[in-house]
Structure formats: structure tokens, C-alpha cells
Amino acid sequence: MMYKLLRRIKQLAKNEEGTVIVLLAISMVVLAGFTALVTDAGLLFVNHSRISNAIDSAVLAGVQELPVNPEQALEIASNYALRNGMAPEEYEFVITDPYSIRGTVERQVGFFFAPLLGFNGGQVHSSARASIKPIVASTGIVPFGVLEGNYSFGQEVILKEGAGEELHPGWFGALRLGGSGASVYEANVKQGYSAEIKIDDVIEIESGNMSGPTQTGIGYRLNSCCHVPCCQINQFVQGCPRILIIPFINIEEIDSEGHPYSVRVVGFGAFLVDSYVGSGNENKVKGRFIRYVAHGKTGETSHDYGLYSAELCE
Predict the structure, then answer these.
(1) 124 vs 86: CA distance, rounded Å
(2) pLDDT in tens, 129-171
(3) Beta-carbon-side half-sphere exposure of residue 253 (alpha carbons within 13 Å)
(4) Distance (Å, rounded) from C-alpha 100 to C-alpha 67?
(5) For a FRET experiment, which of 56, 82, 220, 268 has its CA 20 to 30 Å from that of 149?
């Protein structure tokens, strides 16, 4: 088409009468070129931006399920891609290692004006990889402390003892976050501590039994889970109130009477709280140790307690 147009212009140029037509034709070709450059190049840019955002969102959504169900992680990534306007034949997701998902997308874009110059379309492509890494600092910590040890995922763990069975002489598993007193402690059980706690932080213990505030706070969380089916260790809703973010700790200081005074944070884990049992001195909080992805800071650590944060790697 372009060849025929140029040949016609050359023929017209031989006649003075055709000068105006020639100039008009050349102007039309130039205008078509600029129009194609602006419109179709813009079309490529818009499509590239869309698929890049979509693939980023998809791998971030999928990787959050990776610790619990790898097959479902790929399904979630695919669902996000579809909801963001990608066709099934355009994308592919693969698990590159136990902690990462990679996605690639290619899209053929048809042009509007460039076919006048012999270009029918172009291709845009993008890729992204998201991974999960152990959390080294987090907000929303519940004021319980679990002693460092070898725990299996799914194992039931006592998160808070009653005065009848001390975890350590004079300590029942409660921590002092942001101040002392029953009201502060209860608020932290219900909502989690708003300030950041990080590995190597030293925290004072809450020496009292705190039976009433513990029962009220855990009861609030249990009653706030209205998910159907009920959240289980292998199938739960992200952000469920029953999921407690708790520090793993070691005893740091002991007072002159042999009672713990403070603890040092060595890592973070997540527990799906099962129940509050007993009353008064016999109260206990029980939860199941789970793998979980939450918001938090990641960094170099030798401790992996199954609590991760997701982030884009490329």
C-alpha cells in the first residue's frame, strides 16, 4: 500500500497541476505517521502499564497462600489476573521455590493508524516475582510470649497460663506492651499493640494473672470470627481476629527472688486461637501454630517461625 502511494505521488509530481495534490498527499502521509506514533505508541504504553500492574498484583496475592497451599496459591494468582483483564492465554504462573511465585504475561496489541504505514500491531510483555520472607518487626502484637522451642505447625500451644500452672516462677505468659494495668493489657489482647516490636527488643513481663482481661479479650476475638466455614489451621481467612501474632521469646532478666523480669524477642509466629478454658487461677489460652503471611518488616534472620511478609522481588 505504501509503495503504491509513493509511486502515485511521483507521477503527480511530473505535472505542475499536481503540485498541490502532491504536497497534500505528502502532508497526509506525515500526518498519518505522527498520528500512528502518538496514538498507537500510546496504546502500547497503556497496555504495558495495565499488564504490569495486573501481574504484580497477581503474584503478590498468590504468594500469600504459598505457605499453606501451593496449588491454591497458583489458582489465586490466576484469578487475580483474570479479574484485572488478562486472558488465560496471555499469562503463566510458576512456583520457582518454596517461597516465591513468578508470573509472565505477553499481549498482542492491534494498531489503529499504523496499518497505513504497514504495521498492524505490536507486542507488550511483563514479568514479576513475589516472595515471602520471615518477619523481623511487626505491629499488632498480642501481649503473650511463647518460649523459644521446637514447635510443629498445627500443634496446640498454651499461649497464656493461669496462676495455677506458671510458665516460669512468678510469670504466666503475659507481656507488658505500652504500659501496665488491666485496661492496657485487655486492649492489646483485643486489637494488638499498635507500636512496632522487633527482634532483639527487650520487653518487661506482666506479672499478674490477668484472668479477667484475658478472658474478655480472647472472647472478643473468638466472637468476632463469623467466617463460614469456621477458620481452621489449613483454611482460614486473612486477617481473621482469631489469628494472633505472638513473639517467641527467651527469658532476659531474673530478679533477686528468681522471678522473670523481662524477656528478649527472638522471632515472631502466628497462632489460630482455639479457646479460653478455665477461670480464675486455672485459665488458659490455647492456639494452633500456623504458617501465615502478614504485614511487617523483613530482614536477615536465622529464625523462621512461619510468619512472613510478601514483597515484589523484580
Answers:
(1) 13
(2) 999 999 999 999 999 999 998 899 999 999 988 655 555 677 8
(3) 9
(4) 10
(5) 220
Pairing, β 307-312 against β 292-293? parallel
Q: For the CA atoms of the chain, what is the radius of gyration?
A: 31
Residue type, 165: E
Coil, helix or strand at residue 38: helix
Q: Which CA distances in Å does 103 have to 58, 125, 145?
A: 8, 11, 38
Q: Which residue has the cell 505447625?
A: 153
Measured in residues, the chain has a length of 314
Quickly tell me which residue has 518487626 as its cell. Answer: 137
Tell me the per-residue pLDDT of 246-285, one tens digit each, with 9 for 90 and over: 999 999 998 887 788 899 999 999 999 988 776 666 678 9
Tell me how far CA of residue 77 lies from CA of 95, 100, 281, in angstroms: 11, 12, 48
DSSP secondary structure letters along 175-201: B--SS-SHHHHHHHHHH-BSS-EETT-
Q: What is this structure's pTM?
A: 0.79
